[in-house]
Amino acid sequence: MDETKSNINNLVEHLKDYAETRVDLLKVEATDRISSAASSAASAAIVLVSGLFFLLFFSLGCAWLIKHYTGSAIIGFFSVAGFYLLVSIIVYVKRESLVKIPVVNAILKQLTDDK
């Protein structure tokens, strides 16, 4: 009888250890997924900011180049602004096909993928 109680107590201890280990494993997996998603988001933010700076200076350069050929800074800056307006209109019209944003999809995939 004492041996059976000892075996049951032993089994209960093993089950508690297993449960604690499983909880710890889930915490580590969650931390891994969150850190992976955060690093992907940080990388995407850096690329986005760099791209915006490139776009800004490229736009200014194009405006000054148009000014050089036309002799009017106003024409240069309005030409570049008109180009961006045209791009904005095209993006707005095609927005249904542009719904799938690669960066957001990559982050969501990392959060939901089973490893």
Account of the 3D structure:
The structure is a single chain. The chain has one domain. It has three helices and no strands. The protein is rod-shaped and about 105 Å long. The two termini are 45 Å apart.
Explain briefly what this protein structure is:
This protein has 115 residues and is mainly alpha-helical. 88% of the residues lie in helices and 0% in strands.
Summarize the topology.
Elements (H helix, E strand, L loop, with lengths): L1 H69 L2 H21 L8 H11 L3
Helix pairs in contact: 1-2, 1-3
Distinct helical segment count = 3
In percent, how helical is the residue content?
Answer: over 70%
Low-confidence stretches: none
The succession of helices and strands, N to C, reads: HHH
Distance between the termini: 45 Å
Number of domains: 1
Number of strands: 0
The outline comes out as rod-shaped
Largest sheet properties: none
Average pLDDT over all residues:
86
Protein structure class: mainly alpha
Question: Using only CA atoms, what is the Rg?
Answer: 29 Å
Strand content: under 5%
